[in-house]
Amino acid sequence: MTKKTYINGVGCISTQKTFDTVFLEEAVVNTTETVLSIVSPVYKDYISPAAARRMAKGVKNGIVASALAMKDANVENVDAIITGTGLGCIEDSEKFLKNILDNNEEFLTPTSFIQSTHNTVGAQIALSLQCKGYNFTYVNGAVSFESALLDAKMQIEENEANSILVGGVDENGEYTLSLFKLAGRIKKENDLPSNILNTTSTGVVYGEGASFFVLENERKDSTYAEILDVEIRNTLEENEIESELITFLKVNNLEISDVDAVVLGFGGNIESDVYYKNLAENAFAKTPQLYYKHLSGEYDTASAFALWMASKIIKTQDIPEIVKVNSVTKPVYNIILLYNQVNGKNHSFTLLSK
């Protein structure tokens, strides 16, 4: 008998105020900037100022988000910590490389180098919890977070762990962003104000964030939702996406009409948003459709923000106006499907149920 996977606690630090709030009541859509920055919590409530000073943004946000998730789930410790990140601690990587150049490769302090690896976040969380269990970081582009989620789900199903902390963390680095701008990944200033749903330009509005979840094998009072299934596909053509989704739902004994809401990763890039547009206009025309990157920005693990949002919707049974794509509503939200991809690659489907 395989165990089920429940989301029993969530914590989210994002480019919106997503802590000390009920849901998204304090969210604002920023259409005038091409890069969104984190709304910072009070770090000293979670990390000693001396330690915080030496920590990169992503590490601090990861520690706070994981602390919020564990408090929410009412657990002191977990069996495993699994993190997904696209760029890791990119700020410290940049600092170290800049130091190499500025100092002609001499007299380097190793701090930035040590802090620059992708698994710093998971390691720091483990240190703060004194958790000596399985600790793994997935770096897999836009499916980094889903890879972590899939690992956690399999461990819980196979009874290898009872409770797992899973998260997605990414931070912005100035130099890296300037490269993304050069490469045309980020919207140009004259494409602003950005309208993610009816975009006429390429590139996206970039963001950063840390979202963590406590996954456990049993239901509690704090349970948000059950994770039914996660699937990752590297490449799919535009005309394959619908049949792929129908197959994914069928494996879980569901049809499109059973889906109470679909969360789509609209990013504002006219070239790759057609994947979502096609589904929105055809297969899911009668389904409540939601989006989130106008709030979170686009980054490799933005889909963790989407999972946070979907978990909240199932628990509160309420969909904030600010995330609605269409005006279709349902009396209850029991099954939510999440779909994300970036530039037509790294497609992921995640299925939640009440």
Automatic annotation (TrEMBL):
One annotated Gene Ontology cellular component of this protein: cytosol
Lineage: Bacteria, Pseudomonadati, Bacteroidota, Flavobacteriia, Flavobacteriales
Name used for this protein in its record: 3-oxoacyl-(Acyl-carrier-protein) synthase
GO molecular function: 3-oxoacyl-[acyl-carrier-protein] synthase activity
Keywords of this entry: Transferase
Beta-ketoacyl synthase-like N-terminal domain: residues covered: 47-219
GO BP field: fatty acid biosynthetic process
Organism per entry: Flavobacterium saccharophilum
